[in-house]
Predict the structure.
Amino acid sequence: MGSDKKKLIEVALPLEAINVASAREKSIRHGHPSTLHLWWARRPLAAARAVIFAQMVDDPSGHPERFPTEAAQERERQRLFRLIEELVKWENTTNETVLQQARDEIWQSWRLTCAENRDHPRAAELFDTDKLPAFHDPFAGGGSLPLEAQRLGLESYASDLNPVAVLINKAMIEIPPKFAGRAPVNPESRRGTAHSGSWKGAAGLAEDVRYYGKWMRDEAEKRIGHLYPKIEITADMADERPDLKKYVGRKLTVIAWLWARTVKSPNPAFAHVDVPLASTFMLSTKAGKEAYIDPVIEGDGYRFSVRVGKPKDAEAAKNGTKLARANFVCLMSRAPISGDYIKAEGKSGRMGARLMAIVAEGERGRVYLSPTPEHEAAACKAEPVWKPELTISGSTQYLGVKPYGMDRFDQLFTDRQLVALSTFSDLVGEARVRIQNDAIILGLSKNECSFDGGGTGAIAYAQAIGVFLGFATSKVADRNSALNTWATLREHVANTFKRQALAMTWDFSECNVFSESSGNFEGGITSIFNALLSLGFSGQGSSKQSDASTQLISLAKVVSTDPPYYDNVPYADLSDFFYVWLRRSMRPVFPELFATLAVPKAEELVAFAYRHNGKAGAEAFFLNGMTQAMHRLAEQAH
C-alpha cells in the first residue's frame, strides 16, 4: 500500500459519539452478546465496531484526485463520521441498512487499495478485489473485536491461550454462521407449534437452545427437585407475623436460603457455640418493604427470627456481627473475633454455616421467613457424587478466599450447589444425544464428523447446541456458589463475580435453581436465547487456542487487538471457576481444548510476581513475551 496514505483511524474519529454509545452499552443486558458467558474485561461493541471500520476505510486525504482541497476532505471525513455515529448506536447493532452502508465503504476502500497495488508481486494473493482480507485478534478474550469484524463483513479469526475465551468466541463467531438459516430440530418445532415463517440467522439455533434447555431444567428437577422444597406457611407462623395470614396453608416457592458462616466463639465460656459471622442482619432495605433478622439468644444458644418493618436499632441490624473489615463480635458474649482467628478456624476446617433466613416468592414481591429445621435438613441431604477438587491458584489479592481455608474450587460451593451443577453438567451430554437423534429424524446426516472436525451434520449440530447449554451451567455457577450475597435493595441473589475477583463473603445466599428468580437455570437459557437472536454476522469465523507469541494465524490478515495490561487481572486463575464445570460437559466435544486439568497459566502474558520468582522475573517474562507477540504480528499481518 502507498506509505503516504492513511486510514481514517490514523487521522480522526468521532470520539464523543463512540464514548456515549460505549457507556450506554454497559447498561444493556437483554440480548447483549456478553450475556452468553461472563468475561471480565469485554470491550464495548460500539468501540470495537468503530475501530475496525476506521481501520479499514481510507481517510479522504489519501485520495486527492477525489478530494483535492482540505475543505473537500473535511466534508467527506464528516460524512464518514456521521456514518460511524449511526453505526455505534446499540439499536443499529443488527440494522442491516446501516451495516451495509459501512460494508460498502469498506469494500470501496479495499478496491481502491487493490487497484493501487495491482503490480505487487503477490497481488493475486494479497489484493484480490473480490475478497476482503480476513481479520484476526490474537488476544480475543471476550470476543468483541472478532464479532464486530464479522458483523462488518470480514472473515473473522479469534485466538487466545485461555480455553474459556476460545469457547466464548466459538459461540459468537464460529457456531452461528455455520448453522445460519437452519430450522430447529426439536419435536415441538417440527410440529410447527412454536414458530411460523423462515428461520433467519441464528433463530433456529436459539429455538433449539430454548427447547433443550427447558428439557434439561425439567429433567434436573425430577432428579434433584427434592433438595429444593417449598415452604408451607402455617397458622403458627402467621400468629407472630400478621403479614403472612393470606398465605396460611399455601406452599411458597423458595427463591433463596440465606446462610451465615460460623466459627467457634473465642470466649471460653461459649467455646462450644458456633457463632455467626454476619455482615448484616438486613434482608430488605427497600422503602416500605423493610425486613430484617432478629437474633434471639436462648440460654447458651441462639435462633434467628425474621421480622418485617424497620428495626428498632437500625445500626445494629445494618452491621450484623461485623465490626470492621474481617473482624466480628461474638453474638453470645460480645467478645471480639479477629480476622486472624477466623482465618485459623477456616484453615483448620472448623468454619461452618447456619441458616439465617428463607426468601420465598409472594404475590407481589419477596416474603422473608425465619429458618426451619426442615429446610436446614434439606440442604444436608445433598450428597455430591463428584467435586471439582482443583486447587485454586493465584494471589490472594484476587483470590481472597484462600486465607480462610478455601484452597479448592469444590470448597466454594455447598453440597446442594455441587449436586445441582454436576447434574446440569451431565445433562448437557444427555441433551446432545437427544439433539443428535432429533436431527437425524429431521434429515441431517448421521455419518458426518464432529464439529471440531468440520462437520455440519447431526453430530456437529448437537455438539454446537451443547456449547450453549454448557454456558447456561456456567451462568448458574456464577449465581450459585457459596460466595453469592443477597442484595438487600434490589432483593435478589448477587453474582459471584461482582468484580474481577473471588472475594470472601461472610453471609451468603443459596439460590433455588428451579425458581423464577435470579440464578435459576431457565433464566440463563433465556438470556442465551436472546443473545443469539441479536448476533449479526456477515461471514464465517473461527476460534482457536493459540499462544500469541508463537501463533501463525495472523498471516495475511488484518489485525486489531487489545493486549493484556501487564499485571491487571489474572484471567487464567479466575477462569478456572468456570473451566472446571465446562470441562466436565465439553471435554468429549473439544478434547484438545479441555485436555489440561486447569486453564494454562505459565504462558499467560501477564506480569504476576507469584508465577515468575518476583517482580523482576515477572517484568522480564511479560516484556519478552509481548515483544515476541508483536513481532509475530508485524511479520504476518496484512
Notes: The longest strand covers residues 254-264.
